[in-house]
């Protein structure tokens, strides 16, 4: 990981200070004016790599703490010589230390741990505390995409969206059993393929935060 130039690994997990790239990703790292898209909990980075290949006019950053998984996508994108992708190894709780106001235009959350136990609810990536963090760096017209095999997290997130007055743009509790084409949702991660082999329904939500 340390040898890959597009992998950023802050020195400590506690991250008491902002990283130097905060507010400078476009000019200081990507060196272009293209919008930034995050994949939170990116795992092996399949979504980030595939989207970076499809849309060279956008910049993609995969975010996760597990380096052994992230390395797969980081190495793949390096071998493909993609210059519009980066990987950021942090705990997502520290995300506000990495991005500045209006710096990000879209978020993908792909198959996160649903944190089903009640005492773990604050760890859910669509919990109101996380949405508040995202609001600090998302542009006002930015969208958040959640793709998950968890019907629990799907229902929980819909409840949060309605309860907090966010704008629901699209949703389905069985993504591949509807006669509707949704852009970029045919990309499948390693874990999604496993879920589909077991016959698990895949859900999807697209929404915009209230400002």
- The total beta strand count reads 8
CATH architecture: 3-Layer(aba) Sandwich
**Oligomer status:** single chain
Number of domains: 1
Which residues form runs of ≥5 with pLDDT under 50? none
Q: Just give the CATH class.
A: Alpha Beta
- Arrangement of strands in the largest sheet: 1-4-3-2-5-6-8-7
The secondary-structure element order is: EHEHEHEEHEHEHE
Structural class: alpha/beta
In the CATH hierarchy, the third-tier topology is known as Rossmann fold
Radius of gyration, whole Å: 16 Å
Distance between the termini: 37 Å
Largest sheet report:
8 strands, mixed
- Rounded mean pLDDT score: 94
For CATH, the homologous superfamily is named as: Vaccinia Virus protein VP39
Helix content: 25-40%
Tally of helical segments: 6
**Residue fraction in strands:** 15-25%
Which geometry do the CA atoms define? globular
